[in-house]
Specification:
The structure is a homodimer of 220-residue chains. By secondary structure, the first copy, chain A, is an all-alpha fold. Helices cover 70% and strands 0% of the residues of chain A. The first copy, chain A, has a domain at 63-172 and 197-217: Orthogonal Bundle (Tetracycline Repressor, domain 2), CATH 1.10.357. The structure holds a DNA duplex (30 and 30 nucleotides).
DNA sequence: TAGCGTGACATACCGACGGTATGTGAATGT
DNA sequence: ACATTCACATACCGTCGGTATGTCACGCTA
């Protein structure tokens, strides 16, 4: 079975640590989770954690990196299913809003990320993971004249910020408690009436419509 | 001089505590500032702090409330200098981007706020302070047909998020260190006279231009 | 294959921090 | 005047992030 080689053990420990930390950070936020809880869930001790990461923030950085990679992958996959640059952009935005429905994305990537690592480092990581693709897509549309000539950076940050906030708003808890403490998954949805978690199912569509209108308006 | 009445002492202590906490939180972030440092700067002890606030987060809440009030006041003041609803909106947005040049606004209101109090409470406070005015302005423009008919909430959050991110991006440190550690108070109490800095003077103009274009595009 | 260096942890411990319980003296109502 | 309450100060506690040190298995070399 699993060969107990050094490299394998190392990788295994790191993976478990990141996975459990991700689960706990997403559930109760960075500040409310202690290292003791993390290492207990991972079945190791603090010694192991500090052997592989430089402290709590370092572990969080690894978690954030993983989350960002996954979001970026989902967005890229959605974009690549289209050929027209404009379609690629809108599809990517749609995929981002959809990916944000994951509570892990909201809490780790959008709420705790900037506060724990500082805004500039968070921005740099987001840039490397996904904002770069957004900027490239926009630049392409500017170059071929699809949207009005302008610098990409301001536009990129405006759109990026708009979508980040939209993700958090879309995930807001409904009138009833959405996840009082743990986003646990009981087999029975509260209201079997409606399909699934969009508390306000029209919000996603309306938000995407407004976003599309904003993008559309940039056409020259 | 100061009448040493109970109410006066109370108010004085609270004000000093909030002021010093605001300065320290803005300078090094919520997590890096201890209560001991705050109460020492305010010239009181932890007993006083816990007598007036319910813990560190409670003090931060009071600080955030103050910062949000000030930003909202500046935005409102800028908006009220115009009569045309459209001008009021754009002027308000411009004032918000300018108000964000204050490092206290960036760190306290935009970075630590959501992480410390949780996104939903932060959102509720922002809603009460300023986002409500944005929503009302947009609703007015929708009602009189200036911009396309649509729900206000998605639009409000998209614009709010866009501007929040824009503020942080505009304040990014230049190639040289902007504020090595302490952006601590120069002798000039608040605004030197110009909002301040821009490391990249064209960024603010370009961002405002892009934002205006986005708004303009919503016209029906 | 015996030995040995190194990597991958576990254990024990420390200082600091957020929070609480209790004491105290001045201001205030009666 | 006296009692009460308020606005703190003091002393203390549990927990947490971080560190120093110990230990044992793996893997390379001779």
């Amino acid at each position: 079975m699993g060969p107990t080689s050094r490299a394998h053990q190392r990788e295994q420990t790191i993976r478990t640590l990141v996975t459990e930390a991700r689960r706990l950070f997403a559930g109760r936020g960075y500040g409310a989770v202690g290292l003791a809880e993390i290492v207990a869930a991972a079945g190791v001790t603090k010694g192991a954690l500090y052997h592989h990461f430089d402290g709590k923030a370092g572990l969080f950085r690894a978690v954030l990196e993983q989350v960002q990679q996954e979001v970026a992958a989902r967005v890229a996959a959605a974009a690549e299913r289209h050929d027209d640059p404009w379609e690629r952009l809108t599809a990517g935005c749609r995929a981002f809003l959809a990916a944000g429905s994951d509570p892990e994305v909201q809490q780790i990537m959008l709420v705790d990320g900037p506060a724990v690592l500082g805004w500039s480092e968070w921005r740099a990581m987001d840039e490397a993971a996904s904002a770069r693709h957004l900027a490239e897509a926009l630049q392409g549309l500017i170059d071929d004249g699809t949207i009005a000539f302008q610098r990409v950076e301001p536009l990129t940050h405006l759109l990026s910020g708009a979508m980040n906030e939209a993700v958090l708003w879309l995930a807001r808890p409904g009138p009833d408690g959405d996840h009082p403490d743990h986003p646990d998954h009981p087999d029975h949805p509260d209201h079997p009436d409606h399909p699934d978690h969009p508390d306000h199912p029209r919000d996603l569509a309306d938000t995407m419509a407004a976003l599309t209108r904003m993008l559309e308006s940039l056409r020259s």
